[in-house]
Aminotransferase class V-fold PLP-dependent enzyme (Tahibacter amnicola), 391 residues
Amino acid sequence: MDLSYILNHLGEEDRGKHRGAVSPPIYQSSIFAFDTVAAMREGFRDELDRTVYTRGNNPTVEILRKKVAALEGAEDALLFGSGAAAIAAGVVAVVAQGDHIVCVQKPYSWTRTLLRELLAKFGVTHTFVDATDTTAVEAAITPSTRLIVLESPNTMTFEQQDLAAVAALARARGIRTLLDNSYATPLHQQPIALGIDLVAHSATKYLNGHSDVVAGVLCGSKGLIRDVFKGPYMTLGAMMSPHDAWLMIRGLRTLPVRMRQIAETTARVIAFLQAHPVVERLWYPHAPHDPQFTLTQRQLQGASGLFSFTIRTDTTAGVERFCNALTRCLMTVSWGGYESLLFPVAAVYPPDTPVAAHRADRVPVNLVRLSVGLEEADVLIADLAQALDRV
Ligand SMILES: *Cc1c(COP(=O)(O)O)cnc(C)c1O
């Protein structure tokens, strides 16, 4: 199926049902009524594919579900009210009391909390490993390991895992794999084809791309998705609203053009920053100096616009002068929007924290993460240049 068919038509073919409306209607209804008891019984038989109640399935959400599954090359998908909900549902559906999870060393913060705090309460144990090395993943596996949680690249320092290799060693042992694919998008990395079982996204980021919806997706085989649906999806109820699904269908239409433009602008911004004396070190999987650049070339089919760099300065005061001087990048959490976004790690430390004091296993205090948006490259470079002069 070609990309523009997925984005423009899939799930929307029957426009005649809606008097030819080109943009799909928002089914703003919590419930769906039946003409007969027999029809209602049939609805209960399969709440995932019929329309009974919007916590289970909704026609507007279903359009998006088809598109997202097709983009990931997955048999099926579920939409959630956040990326954190999608990841948690995938994990909870696979593990039970006494099971063990192997997880990448630096996952998204709430993925870490899910394992460390929530699942620990229910007797599920975990090991965090430096999964840039597949043999470290293998060494961490115990007889009770049921799941390997991956995030490639992650979104602060962009470490990657060899997905085909980890998937193969997991399959050989009957262990499930779940990958957070938010950074690469389904356009640039197809984990299902590499043998990964469950693929999650924070759709809040590139998939929706407009900083107006918090959303998550989980993709996998029909059987696995049905397990997730019958378990955490229906019981925890962290579903996506029909209105958010409509917004996300709209956001998704321009994913390929946004990603193409962002990649082009990012290459120019990176070239500028790398040559700048105040920029100490830069993390970006597509930079030839990246320690995993060979894996990038093999595993990623295109570039994203999220990267990090450290500012050459003695204390975080220098970082603050740089960040406060920027006028075209919004300082905030999150990333992947149409607008350039900036996250300074200094914001989670007290003022004037010495850069030399940072712990080697933590993200450096002088690190700044930039998410390049759709501004003109020259505008961003000029803004970064004047702000770097203030350090
Ligand atoms: C933001 C993010 C999440 C969480 O997604 P929400 O939509 O904020 O719940 C998960 N993984 C990664 C890599 C993220 O950047």
About this structure: The chain has a mean pLDDT of 97.
